[in-house]
Amino acid sequence: GPFESNGKLVARGIPLSYDVSLGEIIHRRTVPVSLSVSLGESGAGVRINGTVTGLNGQPKFKGKVQGKGKALSALIAAFSGGGDLPGFLAQDFEIKGAVSASATGVDVGNLAMRLGDVRVSGEVSVDLAGATNIAATLRVSQVNVDKWLAMPAIRRAAKPARESRSSLFRRAAAAMVPAAHAAPKKAPKKAPKKKANKGKEKAKAKAVATEGGFTIPDDINGSVNLVVDSIIFKGGLVRKFQASAELAGGEVTLSQFSAQLPGSSDLAVFGFITAEKGLPKFEGEFETSVGDLRGVFKWLGASPPPVPKDRLRKLTLASRVTATPREISASGLDIQFDSSRITGRVSVSPGKKIKLGVDLTLDRINLDAYLAAKRQAPRSRAKKPPPPSIASVAKSAPGRTRKAASANPLAALSALADIQADIKVRAKKIIYKGTPIADIRFDGLLADGALAVRNFSIASMADTRVKVSGVVSGLSGLPKIKNLVFNIKARDPARLARLAGMELPIDPGKLGAVTFKGRASGSIFKPAFDVTLGVAGGTLVATGNATLLPLISGFDVKATVRNKDTARLLRALGVSYRPGGRIGGLNISARIKGNTAKITLRKIRAAIGEIAVSGRASVDLAAVRPKITAKLATGEVFVDPFLPAKRKRKVGRRRRGGNRRAVGRRKTSPSASYSGRSGISGGRWPDEPFDLSALRNLDFSVALKSKAITSGAYRIENVDLGATLSNGVLRVQRLTGNIFGGALSAQAAVTATIRPSYEAALSLSGVDVGRALKSVTGRVLTTGRMGVNLNLSSVGNSIDEIVSALAGGGKFSLSRLDVKGGAKGSAMSGIFDLLNGLNQLGGVLSGGKRRGGLADVSGSFSMNRGVAQFNDLRLESAMGSGQAKGSVDIYRWTIDVDGRVNLAQNLLTQFLVKKSRAPMSLPFRVSGRLNAPDVKLDTASLPGGG
After folding, report:
1. At what angle do helices 829-845 and 907-916 cross, to 10 degrees?
2. Which of 17, 144, 449, 525 is the right S-S partner for 476, CB 3.0 to 4.6 Å?
3. How buried is 205 (Cβ within 10 angstroms: 0-12 exposed, 13-18 middle, 19+ buried)?
4. What is the pLDDT of residues 768-783, one digit of tens each?
């Protein structure tokens, strides 16, 4: 030497400039060396200065290396294809260090690297004596990742890959010697069977080992120790990041991977990386501890869950981790937050179909402590628009209905088709609204767009047990249910309703133990089901199907209701009703079909106690008010057991009025209210107020035919009833039947206002008086026929008020009466006792033998405030005829009538008058209680002084 050379060249299409010099060899063993290379216009270059010693033995280089460039991205672009690069690679860079190299190894000391303002220091050594050993120690003071991520990406067009010169030589050689690449024509000799099997096994093992193409050399050992003092990421400071790893025997040991994160948290990972079936595999442990979880949320730019500030403060997580490109699993998982703990395992397998495996157990959690923030949040005062009524939904435009119906509300479930999950979760104890919920379990499998619920159960939830199993398939299209079985048992429905925050229209405490079980199958939009509800000591069995599409819902069900105690069932449903007798059980079956607008009930077969009912009915829910239309037929109906039980009056209650005389009553001004007389009836009429407001909540049209309706001794046969309820007005357009051998016809109306009003028209004809009296007195003392026509009206909120306000009028007739004795106990006692007195008078006049005969009585009256006023009462009998006038106070149950009987013009009366000069006219008076009056016939002028 010395030798020098400089110039330009193109290597693999990359333009380079170089400058190399070799000094004079000193003592045949040492030579100075200098080399500099620059890369075209990129501004990147490297310079090496030093000496090579030991030329006569083992050569060794010792010197310095220094490289720099304006942009690291330009250097990378020169040696790689196209494609975008991260923006932080556009920064200038620099590298320098002291190099000592020989055939047995390379040492780089005082290594200093810089990219922008990030500086790295350390040392690297490579030992090539025997097995290769590589060791690197690097230290970084600070990395501002936020600054790097804010730099715009470097856009580059894709470049075609350049073919290397060696590949050109291989192609040329293949062209010149094609036989070298052709398959041999002569088959090899057959090897022994065992050797062939061994060859196959080796080939198979080799294929498995290289399946993923990943290997870890087992002839190279190494270690890396990286320390970063601080990292700025998302505005937070990550401190003391350290990663230490060793390579030995084809295995990488991650002895330390740790950092201190914002939110008083730290992270630690350690484990092993191996090559298994050509894929990398990590097995290790992961630990993290968070002292301020809310601080971590803030650092990551995420909003913490809406829970109180004293919740979700601390978190610890530990787990054994196994990870490959095909599966990541965490076993021995242990998560602790606040006072709760989750243990178990989780696995994830990425790919075209994501596979999940979950088996977790939560020991306990107090949800009340986490939901307190929601409950304490101030409610908005803005009025929410009222929900659409059923009528508005039913009458909505057809176009809008079709559009809403065409939308698939379950479209989001289609994403589950690409997930396969085996999930088992358990919560041992959950506190919700102060109620402990024990042992909640879910065991299910999601695969091929189907969810198989092997078990979902709750051991105890407000004295309720729940168990569900079944399959939901077709999640990517129209879901279907297969053999969905459920069983719910609630011993205390009131507690369950409180827990659910439900305000039921009935008192759940009266329902007793409730069971709900059954099964369902079919389309989720139209499932077929068979369910049984046990409530209030009875059962409801429903079998059929239901359509659950939005705005096109409906159902077709065969339902049966059975209960041994109808009264208890009604009380449980919130009906304040206590019957006066035993009404027996309930057994109803019907075919029910309908939707949100209309419900129809066909083939109704019911037995309420001893009453049989059949027919059909419908409910129109789209009307302004629900409207019921029914056509029913019954057997004989015994009313008395169904009448409300009489309430016992309190002992100290004051009764006003007593048995006052009808005459001389205190007069009230016309402007006085009808209730002014209330309380003077002596307690005869119930004064308990009743509420008719329910009549304003629905409409109905009912046609009822009954074999007979019996109440006490009264029996109406062949009943035909037609009634309607509309806008709070109840009208009985038709009520016909037969009573005591006569005909009954009636109409009525009730208007349910704040102070209800009543109207009634009643017509009776051909009624057998004897049978009617026997129903009251128990004896047949009179025969004859009766006819009545009434037109009455009233107002009031109780029977007492209604009777005291009766108004209207009517007329009656009694024909062919044959009175054989008194008839105490009936409202007609006054008339019958008068006729009986006339018969006795005839017996006296005839010498002691009672004279009878047929009599006719008729009259009309006007009613005002419960008092009937008579002015044309007429009597016709064998003893004579008479007229009377007076009043009957229905409210006080008293009578006050005065009249005169004109003796008949016959031989007996003419003889008596001539002999005793007795008058032909006799006065009489009937007064007192209506069912037991005092009847006085003035016979003082007759022979013997009457």
Report:
1. 70
2. 449
3. exposed
4. 888 887 777 766 677 8
